[in-house]
# Entry
Amino acid sequence: MSSIFSKIVNGEIPCYKIDEDDKCLAFLDINPNSQGHTLCILKREEDYIFDLKDDEYVSLMNFSKKIAKAIKKSVNCKRVSMTVVGLEVPHVHVHLIPINKMEDLNFSNNLDLDKNSFKEVCNKIKSNLD
# Structure
């Protein structure tokens, strides 16, 4: 059975897409810890990050770095954190979370954003991609 992220990759479920290349896709988390919280995924479905092929792992990390730099330019934060948890969706994904304090990494603290807020931050991040 396809993961929800594979359904996003296949266009079966909409997302606030920031960027993509042939191997990776970045989109806003719909249950964000903070404004700009983004998920970077490998398009190929794989459950565990350390089961990725070496070139896929490097591609995902380089792609995530590019997206994190755009987020940092777009959102007022001290830094963009990166975490890979992987228990909630069985599809490798990197969380890029703008933070100002450690509490911003608490996944039980979700922002309630409307569609316009999602679109606004998505467009701002897109505009800051190098």
